[in-house]
Amino acid sequence: MDLNPFQYHAPQSLKEAADLYFKLSQVKLLAGGTMLLNSLKTAKKKGLKTPQHIISLKRIPELKDIRREEGGLSIGAMTTFADLIRSPLVSQELRNILRQIGTTQIRNMGTAGGNLTCRYTWTELGTVMMSLNALLSFYNPKGESYTETAAEFFAKQAKTKDILTHIRVPGPEPRAVGYYRLPKTSPLDVPLFAVCISAECAKGTFQDTVITINRGTSFPCRYRELEAQLNGKTMTPETISEMYPLIQPQAFDPHCEGYKGHMYKIGIRDTLKNLIKGHRDHG
Amino acid sequence: MDKKLTTLHINKTKYQLPLEGHETLLEVLRDQIGLTGTKSACSEAECGACTVLIDGQSVLSCITLACDVEGRDILTIEGLSQNEELHPVQQAFLEKGAVQCGFCIPGMILSSHALLSENPQPETEQIQKSIDGHICRCAGYHKMIDAVKYAGELIAKKERES
Fold first, then answer.
1. Chain A residues touching B111 at Cβ < 8 A
2. What pTM did the predictor assign?
């Protein structure tokens, strides 16, 4: 057997899942399984301790919904990447970004919530959701729901003892979004580096720009200096040319001498190109 | 660990199996049911050889718990052909010479079938994207892409004739 034995639980509601999760020890939540089951196999091979209980969230309908609501888009934590890509409720720009992540099977299996909470630094949805100013809703042991921003969540290294239930993307989306990922040559398609930039664009200029950088080895962070320089500039190729020399990768990675610095600059430049193209095509 | 009687719907046949909960779908298919067409290779979600369809979508059976897909429609390569007739995707792979060692082929064919069910006439780029989770160590991708396009033609022809 590839996995050490554990007790499998398949609750039918969030409350049932929470009651189990907060009561049991040595327990893990199972979302899509693309991260967790692989890590449990690795742990077994290395002789490391593995959980005694696995709680599958797959049978909880309230965690699978995608709906438009006042103030934006609500995405259940157990919604898969494929569900999001197929949903007409999700903006074309976000769907195009999600199509770039993982392989077909991983997109069919991997969930939004699993990707955000698995604590692998290189997972990509966090970078995108931070840039979109997304809010994350959690359910705590007292049965209460509370919300924090994706930025707050990643600032504390994506640590939580509670259950992520929904992701809320503010909208409707006049925001333009651009994404760039530099994958490793690996079947797992893990990015070495990813950037997501979003901006208000009502007047054809960058407003309230959010630039999120994922260096692969640490959780996503903002690049505020460039955000400030972009705000007020027109969304044109000329702005990209003007901004390119101002990109200072040392602002978010102090150890980016040589090729890494160039890689970051080109990545940010191409994200801006993607943003402008996407805004022209879909805006 | 206690065993629980678990019902799996595989290739339109119902199987009732006592499972502890930690068994992967790949292990159950190969070791308990004897459906060895689903291949075990990397066992860590990298190669795509273990691909099966769950409710029509390609998934990796090496990182799917069998208990998690109880009651859902599971299709393996053994369930694709009907009677003695090959499925058009299988026929196309055969006619186009898209098979070399053959190890990746069951998964590749199932992913191609899933694509053609949604999009009967895919473009090259769409085919490349749909088989992006499969590694062919013989590197026979070009013929496979040709085979998927041809399979679309065979399916359309079959539909016209029926």
1. 104-105
2. 0.95
